Amino acid sequence: MDRIRYEPVLSRASIDWNGARGYVQDTFLAINTELYDMQVYACGSEDMIHSARLALTSQGLAPDAFFSDAFVASS
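Predicted structure:
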């Protein structure tokens, strides 16, 4: 379990937020440069999931190592 890391990232942070800001995939890529042996579990809007998958796989994450659950609006 020592390989699990939690890093909160807010895309719309208030001025008093001291943590990471922006897109979570950008923060992830700034921290992790070696993606070949990782698995990513992501949840969020469909746009965020699509953007994250594209960004991470283009930087070396294996496509079958990206797992996601997109939030979709119900009718």
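Summary: The mean pLDDT is 88.
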